[in-house]
Amino acid sequence: MTVEEFWRECREALPGLPADMPEAWAFGALPEHADELLALVLAGTKTATASSLWDIEATGEMMPRPGDLSIILDGSGTPRALIETTAIAIVPFDEVSQEHAFAEGEDDRTLDSWREIHERYWRRHSESPRGFERGMPVVCEEFRLLHSSFNSSPLSC
């Protein structure tokens, strides 16, 4: 299924979505990351994500905002989910909360695990020349799953 076909499916399933197709992207830096994290979203375990503000600035990406829609791709680039951003907070890496770490749904869902995973990720995959620092600004994003290609009926909105 193409991104355009998926967007048409979403608009049929959820009347009232805008005509303009949202950005399509995958979690993580590698296909394996994309598939693992998407599986957590589809299971309802992952309801948050984190981005380096420095990476957003370095790549010229738009800062996510509440109400933004995103089409989430799997590791092969196939659209699988539509999410809506519900909240954004920018906090230093060392001040990310246990609640946010839990909502990201990774590993054992503890803050210690979140810090280890994300430090390793940003040390290896940062798109900013600034890389990783313990006090770096992190964009903590909460979202909700609106529609999935694995589920022919939309989730409650």
Automatic annotation (TrEMBL):
Residues spanning the membrane: none
Record InterPro entries: ASCH_domain, DUF984, PUA-like_sf
Highest taxon of the lineage: Bacteria
Sections of the chain in a coiled coil: none
Domain ASCH positions: 25-147
Entries under SUPFAM superfamilies matching the protein: PUA domain-like
SMART domains noted in UniProt: ASCH
Entry protein name: ASCH domain-containing protein
The species this protein was found in: Flaviflexus salsibiostraticola
Organism lineage: Bacteria, Bacillati, Actinomycetota, Actinomycetes, Actinomycetales
